[in-house]
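Encode chain A's predicted structure.
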Amino acid sequence: MSDHILVEIEAGVMTLTFNRPDKKNALTDGMYKVLADSMAQAEADPAIRAVLFKSSSPAFSAGNDVSDFAAQNSSGDTSRDASERPAGERNVTRFLKALARAEKPLVAAVQGLAVGVGTTMLLHCDLVYVSPEAKLTTPFVGLALVPEAASSWLLPARIGHARAYAMFALGEAMMGEEAVTTGIANKCLPTDEVVAAALAAAQALAKRPIGALKVTKRLMRDADKIAELMDIEGRYFGERLQSAEAAEAFAAFFQKRPADFSKVG
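Encoded structure for chain A:
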């Protein structure tokens, strides 16, 4: 629903606010559509010079809504696999590719929980501000899935293989202060200062020469490689969604019990 993503444009900054607090801002297909459409608008509109991601509640995002994953597992829908469908058709793919190819500055304010894509999208943001309570997790393996948003390359490149593997494979969390020391975030601030700091940074970027900002970002990132890796991850992700391991993971999630993978796989 459109009201689950609030879109505001002011002083050259597009602010995208996750607004599904009852579900800890878990992302649905409809929310991905608004995010993807808004980012396309931001890239095309010369009046928009920076994009800010934030949430209306303490949780930044609980990641992809697990109900969507479970539905794809039970229906046999492998549409997460971008290679088998028309480019851009699936909204999550459109959003991820928009992150990969964004030329204008992206800023994020993370006050609390950031799960899955709530964390991996931060690897595409140019400035990230967190609170000490920010809790970043990438529990893909625990759901019998694999990393996405090119995080299988971007996260170890940022924080090292050992730490990234522990986050992926063991589901270990990273708190706000460590996110700064490892290079995922720029600053760790008191919770009530995070959004203001991120907005001030976005506003400052909006006043900088946009041409120079675009070229600088282009030099710092290999957008084609990132987009290509997203496609590779997507193929594996689609396969994993159909696995018996994933079926057990989703059943355990909804039944609020530990998953038992000993008889599947």
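The longest helix spans residues 223-241.
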